[in-house]
Amino acid sequence: MHTNSAVLFNENTSFTYVDVIVPLYLKNTLTWFVPSQFHNGIAVGVRVEVQIGKSRRYAGIIKKIHQDKPANIEVKPILNVLDDRPILHEDQLKLWAWISKYYMCTEGEVMIAALPSHLKLSSETVVVFNPDHEVDTQTLNEKEYLVSEALEIRSELKISEIQKILDSNHVYPVIKQLIDKRICLVFEQMNETYKAKTETYIHLNSIYHNEEVLETLVNSWSKAPKQLDLLLSFLHLQRTQGDVLKSALLKKANASPAVFDGLVAKDILKVEKRQVDRLPNLPKEFNINFRLSVAQETALMQIQESFQQFPATLLHGVTGSGKTMVYIKLLEQFIKKGVQSLFLLPEIALTSQIIRKLRDHLGGHVAIYHSKFNMSERLELWHKVKSGEVKVVLGARSALFLPFSKLEFIIIDEEHDASYKQQDPAPRYNARDAAIFYAGLVNAKVLLGSATPSLETYYNATTHKYGLVKLSERFGNLELPDITTIDLKLEALDAGQSQIFAPLTIDSIRATLDKGRQIIIFQNRRGYSPYIICNTCSWIPKCTNCDVSLNYHKSSNKLHCHYCGSTYPLYKTCGNCGNQDLLQKNFGTEHIEENLETVFPEQKVARMDTDSIKGKHSHDTLIKQFEEHKIDLLVGTQMVVKGLDFDNVGAVVIPDGDSILHFNDFRVNERAFQLIEQVSGRAGRKNEHGQVFIQLRDTNHPLIEKLQKHDYDAFYNTEIQERQMFFYPPFSRIINVQSRHNDAFASKEAMTIFCNFIRQQYPQFVFGPAQPVINKVRNQYIFECMLKFQKNRQIIDGIKSAIETAVVEVLNHPHLKRTIFTVDVDPL
DNA sequence: AGCACGCCGACT
DNA sequence: GTCGGCGTGCTC
């Protein structure tokens, strides 16, 4: 009787199970049981080693600890506990869960994006040569022979290496044969990839610490003069600097490692390996050596008041208003309070100027985190953030996932920037929106900053969901730049020298250069991306399905829609006024650079776009050269806009304004206004106020007037009205659904079935497919539809579950089984 | 993402 | 009749 009840007790209550997130695409979290020896070691947020499938092992994160045995499956045990304390906080896991739900991906996919890869261990199958077995080459086929040959030489191979040897992904059958023939063995190896960085320090053997003994040694030195030289340089270094680094010594003495090894072999010098930080350890001091202007001071106070009232506050500050200075003051306050802050930037690799400013003023309190960092550096920062040592993290979107212990302040600079949204691999999350959610979770304050806020943020601010603080005055009372249009319908392009600039533009450039000022030429296209415009009435041919401008393709001599792929014959006459004066616009940054070099041969011209910026530092170098006025004319794409403040730019030239005003994007005006306003802001800083020259034909475009007045509110108001006219319910959500399939017809059919299914359930909210898109990407045809609806949590949840059902519905058709759906949620 | 299983065509 | 190519589905 006792035995029975003991068994029952054990089976019912003493088994502990853990739900573990593994870095895989899994719809449901899987459960493992915890053997008794690990009971004390587990906690939510601790990594455990688990087996998944036949042999593969992963480091997963414990999400939940419970006693519920999963029904109908045999539960495997966890193999190991990898951490003695959680590597992240439960709030982080809540953020992961929210992201996976809101952006419709799995938590495993969030984990892949969130953890530095050194924390995401997985096993790799390693094939080892069996030395006890004679290879009988007779019994092997060609592939088996190749592998066994390689094994005999290398004795150990990874699966990926075998794939390379055989030039095929199908290597398992071969390995299986080799195992059967007892030529090799396999095992799973967990790869711990992080290695602490060490530096080698050198000490003198302690017996020579006695001066006399040392003197005797040096004086009685007979052979090996190089070793003596090295020893003497060592003694000198030690006396002047204290601890001596091996690398420093060898460099200073210009000696080879062999000479050094000789001294070590004689036991004169001793080697010590010391662990060091990869991250620079700057002194933790402030250097607030500036004073805020009255306007900035007021803004700062308003922000602090707003923080009492709102979870998030928008700082709408014109370019050059010195938002960064306000940020620094706020960060200083939070650092002094002893809490952590996060400073998000769209593409941090491109914004070394802000990094420099923060480092200058806040010193070692600031750490930087972005994708160009290597994984070891990221892991070290991870731990420093968790321990609370680092107070401010300046980072790109992935910095949001760092394990902050007491985060109270998040700055999202340039909040309108599209690169906050991760596009390609899931999770397709917007770091701005996720950060606002996360701030709510941990009770942190959010400051959104922009000169050209996104419409949805501005809407939230004007409807008092967020606080709103304006900084509408440039620092030092500078005026905003004058925007001058140069009407290309009146000003013929300079036919002799330049196909790109009108003589008037060239004169303006020359005048600016003569004043010793630099110039930025902004063209939003690399290479060649032409479109067509009527020289008389500035009509631009657009796709009837998609309402985006058509691109001329020389190869087919037709007009192509880059959205839906449909083609149109080349127009001979204008579809609006009937004139035959249609112009092909045809230049990108390269062309402009070349052209400027001929027009201004004495000036230094440089180009900044993704083609000309290759390495990690070439961008920095270019900016430095420009700052030091080694470059007079800088031609660039959007890249020149991002986070750059130059003091000596007299003018900005936009040679092809029409291409911006008629963007290939359905949110045409929003992007156009933002771009032109942002790029205009680069003109005129410390010096007299700047000039902007826009060459264009469509001079009556309604945005121009608003841009000239820098009137964001006017732009915003008309944009809202327009959206209502086009049935975009203002401030709703869009869900973008892509179907892809190797077969264009199947992809299209899948999308049609999908859309019909959604329409049945949500006829009132869904206006789709709004943009029938067919793209051919890597042999896969993609169709897209956009679901737009009023923002409302219940509706969003309902639509998402309808989407899931619709996807299942589509995949039930045998010929559509191989359709891949991707879903993407965004504010509109 | 791996890895197994199972269906179908090519070949002893 | 078997081998192996590849598509399909599951992983606690």
UniProtKB/TrEMBL annotation:
Record domain Helicase ATP-binding: where? 304-471
Q: Name one Pfam family in it.
A: PriA_3primeBD
What cofactor is needed?
Zn(2+)
Positions that bind Zn(2+) 1: 534, 537, 574, 577
What EC class is this?
Answer: isomerase
Oligomeric state and partners?
Answer: Component of the replication restart primosome.
The task this protein performs is described as: Initiates the restart of stalled replication forks, which reloads the replicative helicase on sites other than the origin of replication. Recognizes and binds to abandoned replication forks and remodels them to uncover a helicase loading site. Promotes assembly of the primosome at these replication forks.
Name listed for the protein in its UniProt record: Replication restart protein PriA
Please spell out the taxonomic lineage of the organism that makes this protein: Bacteria, Pseudomonadati, Bacteroidota, Chitinophagia, Chitinophagales
The gene coding this protein: priA
